[in-house]
Amino acid sequence: MKIFYIAGPGNVVGTYRHYLKGEHDPGQVAITYSGQFFDVCRELGLAAKVVTTYPDGDKIAADGIEIENWPAPWIGRRRAAYYLGSLAYHARLLAAIIASRADLVVHYDRDHWFLLAPLRLLGVKLLPTLHNRLWAVERPRRGLQGLLLRLNGWYFRRCSSGVMCISEDSVGELREVAGDALPVRTFCPSYPPGTFVDSPAPAEAPRRILFVGRVEVEKGALDLVDVAARLRDRGRRGLVFDVCGDGSALEEMKEQVRALGLEDSFHFRGYTGRKDLPGAFQASFAVVIPTRTVFAEGFNKVVVETILSGRPAVTSAGCLGSPELSGAVVLVPPDSVEAYADAIESLIDDPGRYDEVVRAGDDLRARFYDRGAGWGACLKGFLLDIFPALEARRGEAARADSLT
């Protein structure tokens, strides 16, 4: 049996090279979805082809798994160039899937899920995996966007064998466009035990407010400068905003910091990897995830990593999955600089409230260290439902392992 896995933009070739050596990908903090995919293939004795949009065009083939990076420069383009690029990409996917003689396609997409519908006529099973919102909170669901949502809803409802969803938020959106009959399983990000340490926040000044992620306008990075300015104008001193990440808006963000005279209030750390990121969380007082509603956000792992580190996360319902973590996060109205500033002040002025938010995370942390709640377990559950004969193959693989 063979699976064709259409992954996202990550460097799956690099991850697989580490996997073959029995290593966790050092460039990733969470357990990668591709690593979990490799585990499932190994456990069930499955062959696979994997395609990503990572930009270097690399490839690898070993132990029954073939991986290719297909650079996709069209993703960053606008309007006609984007849609034409997507059509060409999906046509290439269709040809590759048919040539591979795959039995099942596990696939990630953003806007054009329905373009794989012809495979259903050929008897190929289709299993979408939702990691992002189906639409931006602020985006109108009419015109072209409304048409795409209706087509995707039809595809999920009529063509897929089920859908893997990263949160109950995404399940709700899926049900809205595809109905209630569709089989759905949820999963959550998974982390190696001990990745983060839950310890008290530093007592000494300055209080460090942490931002982790791509420095982009839609991720709210520039709003963070306005938040810092509001707090300064209210007389708040002794606050430093640590920015861990890079992106296309980084220079603009630095320029705004200089223009507002906030140089002493910002520390730009650049990309921060697995080795140093836990320390950045431990040094922080709180973490802000200010994603704007113009962006169809995925499940932001920074929220989880904040909870695992025993810190309060300040974000909005525009961040997928945040309402499910209610209590362990401070939710504010989306896109409101004033509300983010108010939330930070409330955590400073009310130690009881701060401790309450941190304690609310105690009951949530275990699930993110539980591989049984992760993407791989979700995939395996669907595979055993769709192909019951795999249960016997799993038993054979387990017996073979016991003899080695």
Distance between the termini: 23 Å
| Number of structural units classed as domains | 2
Q: Report helical residue fraction.
A: 40-55%
Radius of gyration: 22 Å
Please state the second-level CATH architecture of the largest domain: 3-Layer(aba) Sandwich
Shape: globular
| SSE-based structural type | alpha/beta
The CATH topology of the largest domain turns out to be: Rossmann fold
Uncertain runs are none
Average pLDDT reading = 92
Number of helices: 15
Write down how many β-strands occur, each being a DSSP E stretch of 2 or more residues.
Answer: 14
CATH homologous superfamily (4th level) name of the largest domain: Glycogen Phosphorylase B
Approximately what portion of the residues adopt beta-strand conformation? 15-25%
Major sheet strand order: 3-4-2-1-5-6-7-8
Give the CATH class of the largest domain. Alpha Beta
Question: What oligomeric arrangement do these chains adopt?
Answer: single chain
